[in-house]
Amino acid sequence: MEHLDIVLQNVRGMLNETVSIADKIPAGYTPTWAESLWLSLFDGRNELLTFTALAFLMHEFVYFGRYLPFLVCDYIPALQKYKIQDNKPVTREMKWRCLRSLMFSHFIIEGPLMLGFLPIAKLAGIRTTEMPLPGWTEMVVQIAVFFVLEDFWHYWIHRLFHWGPLYRRVHKIHHEFSAPFGMTAEYAHPLETIIFGQGTIGGPILYCQFVGSVHAVTMFAWIWLRLFQAIDAHSGYDFPWSLHNFLPFWAGADHHDYHHAAFVNNFASSFRWWDSIFGTDAKYHAHKARLAAKKVQ
Question: How many other C-beta atoms lie within 10 A of the C-beta of residue 275?
């Protein structure tokens, strides 16, 4: 209760404050063009509400923007040879059903979670309007750590959700689409959305606690890339230029599509190593071997 009281006090304080650029720029420091643009988004506005609005708009823009190329692919006959489960068409009704569910999830579940994120994150050490902005090296290192942490969390939570009672009551909703398409990445039970989401926001908070501060710009870049990964993994397409063809440890659509088709194996989100270490990809590799043998024949 003590921690909750601290968070609530922080929320009340943030709701009553507005940002002044003059107070954020250190004496003698000349902001770059990017830093001036970032600060201008908050200047004279409430930091909490502005951050939440930016996070929500960014999420919607990236989520549906990343899905758009795969949607276009559905209408290009020459690209259907890259469709992993080409015997299972994605209908208009399926797309609308998914979209309606996503609108509820994004506005009713994820929106309020975004509003509650910053007060907790600020207590952990997340920077928002503090200068300077992070450099590329700092961002790359931190985002790499976030990917590894999220993948570890996702692997074990995903295995837990395939336990009978949790699967039937919660995770089964996500598996309604045995042949996924990009937009189904966040099609899930609200409880699943909340629990899996902790892996995305937990990495930056843990990093702040045990390593050093993380800037909100890095956080946004991380979520941008995480959305790219999730939608690609659910795209249903495996192209010659797909990332796993260049980085063998990357999971991608080829890896995750099998999980939806067979309802087993391949529990990790971004990387293949946890499934390999714990043997939860044996059936997947047997499946790939059978496909390769058929091509030889």
Answer: 22
User: Reduced to 3 states, what is the DSSP secondary structure of residue 83?
Assistant: strand
Tokens of 98: 């998914």
Rounded to 5°, the CA angle 19-25-27 comes to 140
Hey, what are 155's tokens?
A: 């692997």
Q: Which of 31, 51, 33 is nearest to 41 (CA)?
A: 51
Q: State how far Cα 271 lies from the chain centre.
A: 14
C-alpha 237: how far from its chain's center? 19
pLDDT of residue 18: 85
Give the C-alpha separation, 279 to 161, whole Å: 18
- The 10s digit of each residue's pLDDT in 223-252 is 999 999 999 999 999 999 999 999 999 999
Tell me the Ramachandran region of residue 239: left when phi exceeds 0, alpha when psi lies from -120 to 50, beta otherwise: beta
- Encode burial over 96-110: b for 16+ CB neighbours within 10 A, e otherwise: eebeebbeebbeebb
**What are 55's two structure tokens?**
């996070």
Q: Mind listing the pLDDT tens digit for each residue in 91-117?
A: 999 999 999 999 999 999 999 999 999
**Longest Cα–Cα distance in the chain:** 73
What are the phi and psi torsion angles at 120 (to 5°)? -75, -45
pTM listed for this prediction: 0.94
- Tokens 């529990």 belong to residue: 267
H helices then E strands: how many in the chain? 13, 0
